[in-house]
Amino acid sequence: MLDHSPSSPTPRTALHETAQASRRRRRGLIRLSTLASVAALAWTIGGGAPAHSAPQGNTYVALGDSYASGVGAPPYASGTDVQGGNGCKRAAGAYAHQVASQTGKTLDFGACSGARIPDFYNPRTSWNEPAQLNHLNSSTSLVTFSIGGNDAGFSTILTKCITAAPFTTCSGNKEVSEQVDGAISALAGKTTRAGITSYDTLVADIASRAPGATVVAVGYPRMFTPRGTGQIFPVPGRCEGVTKVDQRWINAKTNEINAAARAAAQRHGHRFTDPSASFAGHELCGQQSSWFDGLINDGRFHPNTNGHKAMATSVMNTLNDQQAAQEQPAAAQAQVDNMRPTGSFTLTRDGDQITLDASASTDSDGTITNVDWYIQHADGTEEVLTGAQATTTVPADQQVSITAVVTDNQGKEDFTTQVAPAS
Q: Is the pLDDT at 33 greater than 80, yes or no?
């Protein structure tokens, strides 16, 4: 989610040239030509899916931030990884190249590491990068975009979460959480904030610049396992330096920003793809090999080459899914409109025993369906308990930090933290 910028159109692909040659031979080989075209266009990462029918024109424009440009999936295109200069980092392994190959389209790659939504409207002249929307025109037949993570401050979030001191949480830091929640609210169009353009406005502007194009908003894959996990290296008990509860919180904010993008895209009759399901088991510290770069890698907290293959699969599945084209925006908007529950709990300490009770938590437009407790011990380990009431044992002479994660009937979560000092 950390990225910025556009480039000039690339030459026609070999696949496109083959298709042209096939058309020239069409007069004598109509049947053979048709079969060859279908086979070429039907090839997806998973194979066997029907070809996506695109409007006139053959240009695919890929816009967005570092999750679109391909940070973490090098090598990077010449002139886009310049120390002290252009740092768009447009990668050969980025999902855009795979989508272009599988749709047979000519790629115009405008995504750029560090991009925020203002970069869609304003050039980055010091990098010789035009406004990303300037890549669009009437000949554009396909647009993908991944944007909003930098606007919401995810790079700052990760820095603060990694450096969080013992017994503190990124999610419990009001300065961090309120900034993120306010930015996501502005992206969703529920409020306004200086420097943030809503997804609704952005999608409308994309459609006006490329009126005949199929538009796919590409969400951010969740980086961490559903409840968070720990590892020994580089920080014991954490995953890539992030506590379990903050892993859970980052996932929750990823869900919220994806919901906002989905609602805006579908409201304008366009498509949205959430690649998170493709990453199941391959999150950071997941059960299988990670499809994200970790803390010590150059592409830290970004999808690696395998991750971009998964993102390409997600995009292609959405393009080939006719049901996705018919999705109604009401359900997506309901997720955005759903109010976050209000977590509240009491903490009672009696010697080594701590009693927790979150039954006072409320949800103004639904019901509370689950409460998880994250108990951060002095040795850095985190205990996870479930239930509105819970008990745990902590030596009386040790401080402990406890966070209640309260979930409502639509899956939205609230995080509330208390620190119990040593007696």
A: no
